[in-house]
Amino acid sequence: MHFLWLVSAFSFGVLSAFVIEKSNKLNFLNERNLESLATTDRLTGINNRMKIENNVDEEVERARRYDRGLAIIMLDVDYFKQVNDEYGHHVGDVALKEIAAVVQDGIRKVDSVGRWGGEEFIIVLPETSLNEAKQVAEQIRLKIENHEFTVVQHKTSSFGVAAYIQGDNSQSIINRADKALYKAKELGRNQVQGL
Fold it and tell me: One of 53, 98, 119, 120 is an active-site residue; which one?
């Protein structure tokens, strides 16, 4: 009788451990899924604005603490409203997905890209100088310009680049990249400007 009791207690313990382990795995997967939903742009599959802002915050703190380089690239697709007006929002969405893929293909694994809003994207380049970031932006600019999009065929983008300077916070470096972006637009678009 004691033997049966020991066997059933052991079996119950093993079964409980299995159920708890399975439950823990499901909770872990659900948490990962929720985190992905909260940090990923649903259209493009890249970081959303909240996630990329967090990345900028972290990298600015790292640049400040360790006196390391950091650069930010902002890019805006030129005359994107015309795509939506001429072809419809569905085609515009496809073009944004393609641009996100081209940009992601043009950066290092340590870099991050996110959708800032609409047709604007931001790229965070740790341990990168202003000149190095301008070179990266120029390479991406050329890739976008030479990419044959599914429906719209060709698009161009304007780029603003800024590098971390002592005393910067997330907002100040983003603001400089944004000013450089508007300078690129004012000077004729499809170009890289840095501040």
Answer: 119
Separation of alpha carbons 150 and 190, rounded Å: 20
| pLDDT mean for each 10 residues of the chain (195 residues) | 59 64 63 66 96 97 96 97 94 96 96 96 98 98 96 95 96 98 98 96
Residues 97 and 29 in one domain: no
DSSP helix/strand/coil, 37: helix
CATH number of the domain residue 190 falls in = 3.30.70.270
How far apart, in whole angstroms, are the C-alpha atoms of residue 37 and residue 133? 29
Q: Is 138 designated active site?
A: no
SS (H, E, C) 115-141: EEECCEEEEEEECCCHHHHHHHHHHHH
Counting the structural domains of the chain, the total is 2
Residue 38 pLDDT: 76
| 105-to-10, 46, 173, 180 alpha-carbon distances in Å | 53, 12, 24, 23
Indicate whether 44 belongs to any domain.
no
